[in-house]
Amino acid sequence: IGPQVNTLLYKMFQHLPIESLTIPGTVTTIENNVFEDCQQLVYLVFEPSVDGSALTMGYDDSGNHEGPFIDSPLETVKLNREINYTFPASSIDDDLEGLFGGKPTLRNVILGEQVKTLSNNMFADACITEIFIPGSVNSIGCDVFHECYSLADVTFAASPTGEALAVGYDTDGEDENLFQDSSLTTLRLNR
Question: Considering the entire predicted model, what is its pTM?
């Protein structure tokens, strides 16, 4: 995708055998169903925004209204910018609805300094073992790490501005914490 592209259109990559994709920072909008039936997409990079703006991201509106990568066996995601995820429900409350939810193949997640929010169910069901949450993140939704059974090591970096971090929880039961379903053995809180 070239730097002149700013929108990925409806069903743009549908059924294509793409294995790896880099989305440049010039892209500001990804419409619904862009990655529908991309059954070989395993590596995905979101480059930093050229002007610091968020990327508006659609979902998979076929069938049960699921996350945009529901058909892709993603293994690695490098998220270097903020994403405004436009799921149609008033709230995302199912693992398959999360931005990268329902991805038991997802093992590597790298978050960049432009990321400010981790939305509800964002990494639900992923097989990540560790994650570094940069200081730029100021909000973590509910069930972000729901059923991330392999997650053992989490680091929260200090905020460069001293801003507090708003954190959701696991909504499956009463009074459950954000890492309820993980194998968490190491937690580093630097803010």
Answer: 0.89
